[in-house]
Amino acid sequence: MLDVSQVSHSYAAGGRLWRKPAIPVLQDISFTLEPGMCLGLLGVSGTGKSTLGKIILGLQRPTAGRVSFAGQDWYARDRRARHHMRREVQAVFQDCYSAVNPLMSAGQIIGEPLRNYERLSALEQKRRVAELLEQVGLQASDADKRPAAFSGGQLQRINIARAIALRPKLIVLDEAISSLDMVNQTQILTLLSQLRADYGMSYLFITHHIQAALTISDRMLVMDKGQIVCTADSAAALMSSPHPAVQQLIAARLPEHPSQRLDWSSET
Amino acid sequence: MTGAIIVQANPLLETVDLAVQCRTASGKLDLLQGIHLRLEAGRVLGIVGESGSGKSLTCHAILGLLHRTQMQRSGQVRLQGQELTNYSERQMRRVRGAQIGTILQNPMNAFMPLHTIGTQFVQTLRTHDGTLSRRQALRIAVEGLDNMGLPHPQRLLRQYPFQLSGGMLQRIMIALSMCLKPKLLIADEPTTALDLVSQLQVLRALDRLRRECGTAILLVSHDLGVIAQMADDVAVMRHGRIVEQGSVHQLFDDPQHEYTRLLLDSRMTAYHPLEQEQEQEQEQEQEQGGRRDA
Ligand SMILES: Nc1ncnc2c1ncn2[C@@H]1O[C@H](COP(=O)(O)OP(=O)(O)OP(=O)(O)O)[C@@H](O)[C@H]1O
Ligand SMILES: Nc1ncnc2c1ncn2[C@@H]1O[C@H](COP(=O)(O)OP(=O)(O)OP(=O)(O)O)[C@@H](O)[C@H]1O
Ligand SMILES: [Mg+2]
Ligand SMILES: [Mg+2]
């Protein structure tokens, strides 16, 4: 369904005061994503995960390579056709508060894609919004509340409701659960798995959290310095990868209990 | 004489009955209530709690960064015995720069979008030490960025905030807030956008600042691993109140509040598929080994 083929990208380094060669961010990325599949994308900070996400969302034209969705080249189409295709690919980002307009009500936020793509009567729109709210574990009466009245976890549910409003084929989740507490993270992961089972959507799940990626993904890609260095279909396969970047990610741990603290006291 | 005793008896940071109300169309809404916190020099006080429980709001209330018309603050905030609630906006700005370092939850807001990272370091460093040359300031900046494990610090100095990834900005902000070696550091979710490799680097640097400069750290995090590694004491927040407060060991070994227990449980059960698989493999190996022995 999604076919990323030999994609490379460098951002133009065109500051006002100096000219430097462009810095390569992605190199020769290829993978495919089948309908209903969840692909986890892991890697340390700054390796190009979000850049790849933006390219797949149609927001950033790569400097080389091809991205095709349902057999059509994303970046070869004109704007109009892209607008049409865009309803099939939605996104949820990390910062749930800045993703929404603080002056809009939850109902307006969730209803926005419906207004843009589907002409519904006011009544029908209201019914759809109520349905969506319930699907993500909120109540129909929450439609009138403003973002400030919700906790981060609830607001992320609203962002998810907006993303699924048009029944897209693919959702790009870029660190979508990272800013939530563990209780909410687990709940949102469960919700995402459920929605995927119900609608057969695919996810590109970008995260720095190995365990979260393992919980939800069918396959994981590990990126390092703009390249895919490991493709794994299970935790065991991931752990047995010899690549140092993968090993480093697996080895890094925080203690589970204060008695297991890493001792840094002798360092200067 | 009494002065000396008072200085000793005062913690570095103390809040007494700190509260925040929000004015809405339908009346006043309590967002924070009865926040009593105490933090000594060189120690780390962790704040945990679910999203929306008021952790960030507590930081903003201490820093005097609340929305002026919408929010109303009451109670006391003392830094080294000084009552900050009486300070003017101008005085507060000086305190925030020189004595309190801040790492806010949304890194993008912490930067001036049209200035390079290098310029922001130079400006920050020079407002507090006018004798520093641009060159010296840049040298301090490179060292700070290097400590965060950021590659190519020289190149970073010439880049603009929009050119950097979320996790890079977060680490740059931490380096920026640490370069002045503040007495108090308020760190609101400093490592949320970071992978564990980078997280460990950041936490290590914070720990070094605490040890070498005696900086006290108010550390907000939803990650109990971060709390276990860093905190001496912990306050658990829920619905704008502190529901439990004590030493980090007490919290992990004998959690009093139901929500604290829920937090601890959610971490043990849901998040260790890696370990489960490892254990299963080990068990299988042992079984096989046993069979071989027999
Ligand atoms: N608009 C831009 N202009 C120039 N360089 C950019 C731009 N956006 C990102 N970069 C660079 O591209 C690289 C990859 O950034 P990206 O945001 O894709 O990383 P990431 O893997 O998502 O990291 P993180 O985990 O920290 O979010 C970084 O080195 C960053 O500096
Ligand atoms: N301007 C506002 N008007 C009304 N309520 C607000 C406003 N700003 C914040 N709140 C409320 O205050 C509560 C505390 O928010 P705060 O940002 O402190 O939570 P938090 O504990 O930091 O959560 P997170 O872990 O998601 O960062 C939230 O429930 C929020 O809805
Ligand atoms: Mg990113
Ligand atoms: Mg917060």
| Widest β-sheet, arrangement of strands of chain A | 6-7-8-3-9-10
The hetero compounds bound to this protein are: adenosine-5'-triphosphate, magnesium ion
Structural class of chain A: alpha/beta
| Topology order of chain A in helix (H) and strand (E) letters | EEEHEEHEHHHEHEHEEHH
Low-confidence stretches of chain B: 1-8
CATH overall fold name of the largest domain in chain A: Rossmann fold
Description:
- The complex is a heterodimer of chains A (268) and B (294).
- Chain A has nine helices and ten strands.
- Chain A is α/β, with parallel strands linked by helices and 268 residues long.
- Chain A has two domains: 31-60 and 82-88 and 170-251, Rossmann fold, CATH 3.40.50.300; 94-167, no CATH class.
- A six-stranded mixed β-sheet of chain A has the order 6-7-8-3-9-10, with helices on both faces.
- In chain A, strand 4 and strand 5 form a beta hairpin.
- In chain A, helix 3 packs across helix 4 (122-135) and helix 3 (106-117) packs parallel to helix 5 (152-164).
- The mean pLDDT of chain A is 88.
- Chain B is of the alpha/beta class.
- In chain B, 46% of the residues lie in helices and 23% in strands.
- Chain B contains twelve helices and ten strands.
- In chain B, strands 6-7-8-3-9-10 form a six-stranded mixed β-sheet, sandwiched between helices.
- Mean pLDDT of chain B is 86; it is low at 1-8.
- At the A-B interface, helix 5, helix 6, helix 7, helix 8 and helix 9 of A face helix 7, helix 8, helix 9, helix 10 and helix 11 of B.
- One adenosine-5'-triphosphate (ATP) sits between chains B (22, 31, 49, 51-57, 67, 70, 105, 222) and A (148-149, 151-152).
